[in-house]
Specification:
mainly alpha; globular
C-alpha cells in the first residue's frame, strides 16, 4: 500500500494543478513549447513538459538533448517523466541509453520502473541494456521486476533468425 500511495502522491504533484476540470499545463502545446517547459526552473513545470513530450511520441525527438540532461534532475518526478518521454520517442532515443542505464539504479522505484519500460519501448536498439535489465529482475520492488521482464521481451532479438 505504501508503494501505491507514494506513486499516487508523485502523480498528483505532476497532474494536481490541472485536475479540477481545467486543461493540464502541457495540453495543446507544441513540441517546441514543451521543450521550453523543460528549461523552467520549477520541477513541476519540467515534469509537465516531459509528460507532454511523451504524448507527442517520436515527434518529440528534437527535445532529446534536454531530456537527456534532465535525467540527472534532483527531482524524482522529473526523472520519471523524462524516462517516460524517452521511451515514447522510441528507437531514436537510443542515444539516451547511458542515461537510462543510470536511471535503472535510481533510488526511487518509480524511476527505475519507468527507465526499464522506456528501454522496452526503444526496443532492439537498446540491446546494450540487456545485462542491466536481467539484473533488475531481482529488484526489491515487484513492479520494477515486472517492468524489467517486459522490457527484456521487447529488447531481445527474436529467436530463430526468421524474418
Amino acid at each position: 500500500m505504501k508503494k501505491f500511495s507514494r506513486s499516487v502522491a508523485l502523480s498528483l504533484l505532476v497532474l494536481g494543478p490541472g485536475c479540477r476540470g481545467r486543461s493540464l499545463p502541457h495540453e495543446g502545446k507544441t513540441v517546441a513549447q514543451l521543450e521550453r517547459m523543460l528549461s523552467d526552473p520549477t520541477p513541476r513545470v519540467q515534469a509537465q513538459g516531459a509528460l507532454g513530450l511523451a504524448e507527442h511520441g517520436p515527434a518529440a525527438a528534437p527535445a532529446l538533448p534536454r531530456l537527456r540532461e534532465l535525467t540527472a534532475s534532483p527531482d524524482p518526478v522529473v526523472r520519471q517523466q523524462v524516462a517516460l518521454a524517452l521511451g515514447k520517442i522510441g528507437p531514436e532515443a537510443e542515444v539516451a541509453l547511458p542515461e537510462l542505464l543510470r536511471l535503472l539504479h535510481d533510488p526511487e522505484w518509480q524511476v527505475r520502473r519507468q527507465a526499464a519500460l522506456a528501454l522496452g519501448d526503444i526496443g532492439p536498439p537498446a540491446a546494450a541494456a540487456l545485462p542491466e535489465l536481467e539484473a533488475l529482475r531481482a529488484d526489491p520492488d515487484s513492479l520494477v521486476q515486472k517492468a524489467a521482464s517486459s522490457a527484456l521481451r521487447k529488447v531481445r532479438p527474436p529467436k530463430g533468425g526468421g524474418t
